[in-house]
């Protein structure tokens, strides 16, 4: 019976999500003029759902202080208060408002993940495309260095680096970004390799274009689809890395609310069937699914398959 | 020759097919009727975008992703393919209706041996057992005049040459002895000399098994050899249909006549250069290659001011490598390139910006030669900005001027992406980009071979005009002798990295020829429906004669 | 085939260089870590005197490069030394744990690889249907939960009901069948963690090929959709799939410290973390090298298999 | 039952005093149910603990985690043992006596004790075992506590004589320290890698950081101890995993219990919570040499700015009691009952800030869960409450890894955990005496130092009490350590496990001796 009820609610959630996604697409298609509108009209519902979720997250992140009834660090009541009108989602182990922390968590988590991923991509794709464009010894050196870095397990490596350099948000971002950038490098290089053999690159070289122009104007725009797709995945993995680091006692400094650490802080409750830890985990999962739905759609458009 | 007394095999009535674009569904085929009798070969002809392939595939009840049949009926041997279930259609495909694709190299699965792909059809359709099918394959390979018919099936596609693959694919299409084969431009990707063998093999086997065929091509001379009847398509609509000889001798429609007339452009002969004139570009004793392999052996030729030198040869002859040596992409092992009598640094990276500016290149595939993410403003403007330092208004004015020069309306085109252009327009943009540098020498690498003949003709005329206006010298790399005839002043014939013959065009097209030049020239299809038969007979005779001589 | 041998030889050579570079990086990193073994073992009880005595006994008073050279000299001769913390030979220390780690990795892979291939192929076959989207969403949700959280949920659902043990304690006396039963939950956790990635890649690699002319050819030969996916698309999609499988296998070997902690599984990950926190440098080095070697070898294996799957590379013209 | 053992020594007042020392106290509400039936033999106790590292070893110099402490307490014997009621009883030492100045101590070694290897325990073994921790080459964590021993000699086959550099009435207590295990000697040296011992359990196998299996030592000399046939100890670091193991019945006892969910765990059927309160306390130690902590007014302000009850409620979930800024717990012998309890008072905090000439102060507080469970949260709560007094505490979460070497006594203000010491003198000497190695507030108070030395050898009970009262007052009012709470040890066990009515509180798990003292009901 319990299974049936759960299935029922899952079905309800999926239907509501679909309906919302569809509606959102219609709105976008009508609201946006010309080409952009047409693009959205042909988008699948899953992509609409994804964009809607991302939009909501962004709004929540930006408007966090306006939405959250309490501050993220303020102790406002007893521990583990149940859900009620004042504390929509109850309170956590220190008596802080769960809902407010989730809302601020959106800001912190999404912000940190975005900065980290952006940095990883800046570093990884610039070097990767550089390796592809220049080739020769530079490519060899960079590729070997990346091979070496990738052969060290990421979690252990970040553990080492964070212990050496401390666990401020800045080092956290830098360490995860550097480790992630090795993965981005690989992708960017292989995508770049496919592009540099194209005639227009040859034409640009013969024109006497400099490296900067070659990479930024000629290669990068054509490598953007797979890079953006990877961005989506990596973006989500940053939460997981932070969460795993929290598990090992590193991670984001309290009392800053971030979903990864919040999962860790409340995880024990799941042992007793309490769903509180599902909330931050669900926030991460929903965003991951949403981002990837959008990414899938973009990849699909880029691949030219019309199905 | 009339087939009308034979029973009807395929009848398409008022077929409408739509394709999905970002603007929604757009019609591709707008109500075409088609009737094909048993054993009859119908030629479908038209330019790209005419809907030839779409129609050909519809004959199999198949539409590509993003297309759908919106109206009409397709009746194959009494079965309505539009209404039939997918399962029924699938059981017909490969067994009773087969398909031969344009690029055999791409259409053979690279992961499996030829024989495995051959037997798949008969086995899955339960026509024969695997052993029977393998035996049958050898027989058909033999009939398709493939070398080593017993063994060739055990090779992977990449181990077999293009012409052989195309024949193997025809054999594969024949594997279930279908009633109908759709040939979709089966020889377009082949060299002329190879094309002849494939055409002959296809013609014979279709005749032997009395198979009906739809033969899709844009090459009139080819279709003339293959088809009993010809249907001309234009933008999804039928222009006219007639028996081959009638169609060739007296086309009714203006459009058809214009197709027929394409090959008429011939550039006016120019005075020969003075013997002491310094050539713009000289290729001097160049030997070059990749890795340890030499691709070019001691290549020598000159290109004079305001002249067009056509470098002719089949794939692998070293034409494009020569271009790479001249541009500096491939520094030669020996020899050098002179520009205005002065040696150029062998590597483009050592050349000055001015030297780079003087030599520009136009590529065969405009699709890959234009950065798909840049608008024409930037694509064309970039060289002008780089070399000539133009900025702002002046730059924009120059881009507009160049667009007008290549006959594209500036206001309409300046902010388009390459993907929003047709093939011919893209090639024009390629030209404009080369011209933006204000070069003196332009290398044109197969610039027309990916284009329809009408479009190609437009490009050739444009290039011809610009040569006069802008004082340009061209090196024209091509495998198409018609192009040579149309535009060249001088011809360089290459084979296996060597120059076998060179001289002014008029001398080249006049016998006696080098034997290779002779082979090339004779392989160019002619509009005469009997040309292939006659040529084969002559070659047979020649061979017999040679044997007799020996 | 000789090409493959040359490639293997080259890659192995590079692999050795990689390992060497990693040993230096790890050594430097552990050097840079604040504190040392003596301090971390003595913990709150450390005094200057005892720390100094401890360091003398362990040879930590020697300069870093001397210690590295000694370690390297030993390692080259196959002697990875003894643990600084408890003087046990590192080979003994690592032996059973390596076996445990490999067991769990292979177990998880044995479930995850076929599962993700089947799901990926089915998703490609029924692309853009609700099956595809559903499988995709579930897989994505599974990877967006932190590993330990997935583990807790599985324990809550499967262990508290008594179906499976919540601890994966195995030792030399555990029978194979018993080990399979006891480590089912960690294996399942890891399966959930890695399946999504492999499944998505399988699906993407196959779909990527569906626009190929040879796929259209197969359709026009009247081949059924399942055969087209399996016989025509899959063999050509193997290279990226193998690569992603290798990456995930490497992860199963090197990245499972959190799962080990939750299920009390004596694997290498926990050893590595403990040794890092105790600054037991020889152990850290040895484990890091095992991890790196696993990564290098799996990548090499992936490349060899990808090469073998490509007739162009093994049947030259 | 211990009367006979002490019959001989109780004549001496000093020792009498020692036996009456009550170092710790007692069973708290949740434990009562366990002590029912008569003890009986049998069963394998499966014990899961939250510590234990792959780097653990048999070397007594390095025992630092609860896992090794419990393991080695089961495996080894010690000269003395702290009984559940907090009094000191002999173990390997049958009895002891001191000179009146408490400088020379004679321990009579019990006869008939054999090591697991079969070797008889002799005075030489005792000397070698203690000597292992002494001397310039000692790397032992116990070195500071055995340093005052000047000489160790034998007097006859079964008497060991310790000569101290200064009198110490609590010396026998020190000999109960968990590092000072008596191990078999060979040529006057113990083998720190050997697993031999004279305790109630023989180590069958030990995979450091994972599991240890022990079986009962059939020749164990204590008649009414070591009820279990064997012990299976597992290290489960993850709190949730530990609880799950208990809930699913895969282990019988877990320690510690995650305090966040202890209430939920208690509701699970067949599970009992046991907590003991003794000397374990959590502190925030500031470097009194550095500004602003060098000003006692700032220190007082900080002491008034913490809500102790909130910490006990939220961090300890009620499993503990409030501290009064000194390290002596309410159950201890000389606990100062007259000292008023300090409470959260932002106004007083502000007042003291004013006195220091400040309107507000900003300080960094370093914490990590390695300092004590919930340390970071405790610091956060502290910070929240202190804000009201104009004190801005920035909580810095430090890595758990390397906390004790890189943060504690390095950062100006950090969270600290103290297991506590059984005697006031030991505690004060360890962490509050000027120049002591672990004086983590770098505090130097002349009057306090003077009292410390005097009290150590003071034999008059009342005078001694007065001295310790004064010392507590000094530490509370002028010390550099905020002591917000005394934390109970909280364990959970299945109903099947029984234990005596009185459970020792000097350490967790019945003073590390649960495996020896408990049984299956």
UniProtKB/TrEMBL annotation, chain A:
Organism: Albidovulum inexpectatum
Predominant localisation class: membrane
Keywords, in A-Z order: Cell membrane, Membrane, Transmembrane, Transmembrane helix, Transport
Source organism superkingdom: Bacteria
GO cellular component: plasma membrane
Ranges annotated as spanning the membrane: 43-64, 110-138, 150-179, 231-252, 278-299
PROSITE patterns assigned to the protein according to its UniProt record, in alphabetical order: ABC_TM1
A Pfam family matched in the record: BPD_transp_1
Keyword set includes Membrane: yes
Family per similarity comment: Belongs to the binding-protein-dependent transport system permease family.
ABC transmembrane type-1 domain boundaries: 106-299
Compartment list: Cell membrane
Membrane topology per record: Multi-pass membrane protein
The protein, known as: Peptide/nickel transport system permease protein
Single Gene Ontology BP annotation: transmembrane transport
From TrEMBL, chain B:
GO cellular component, as recorded: plasma membrane
InterPro entries: AAA+_ATPase, ABC_Ni/Peptide_Import, ABC_transporter-like_ATP-bd, ABC_transporter-like_CS, Oligopep_ABC_C, P-loop_NTPase
An individual GO BP term: peptide transport
Subcellular location: Cell inner membrane
Membrane topology: Peripheral membrane protein
Keyword Coiled coil found: no
Protein name as annotated: Peptide/nickel transport system ATP-binding protein
Organism listed in the record: Albidovulum inexpectatum
Automatic annotation (TrEMBL), chain C:
Topological type in the membrane: Multi-pass membrane protein
Source domain of life: Bacteria
Stored CDD domains: TM_PBP2 (cd06261)
Signal sequence, start to end: none
Domain ABC transmembrane type-1: 98-302
Xref: InterPro entries: BPD_transp_1_N, MetI-like, MetI-like_sf
Gene3D superfamilies in alphabetical order: MetI-like
Cellular localization per UniProt: Cell membrane
Keyword Transit peptide found: no
Pfam families: BPD_transp_1, BPD_transp_1_N
Annotated family: Belongs to the binding-protein-dependent transport system permease family.
Protein name: Peptide/nickel transport system permease protein
From TrEMBL, chain D:
Subcellular location field: Periplasm
The UniProt record lists the keyword Signal: yes
GO CC terms in record: ATP-binding cassette (ABC) transporter complex; outer membrane-bounded periplasmic space
Alphabetic keyword roster: Signal, Transport
Entry-linked PROSITE patterns: TAT (PS51318)
Gene Ontology molecular function terms on file: peptide transmembrane transporter activity
Record-linked CDD domains: PBP2_NikA_DppA_OppA_like_17
Domain (Solute-binding protein family) ranges: 88-438
Principal cellular location given in the protein's record: periplasm
GO biological process: peptide transport
PANTHER family xref list: PERIPLASMIC BINDING COMPONENT OF ABC TRANSPORTER, PERIPLASMIC OLIGOPEPTIDE-BINDING PROTEIN-RELATED
Homology family: Belongs to the bacterial solute-binding protein 5 family.
Name this protein carries in UniProt: Peptide/nickel transport system substrate-binding protein
Classification lineage: Bacteria, Pseudomonadati, Pseudomonadota, Alphaproteobacteria, Rhodobacterales
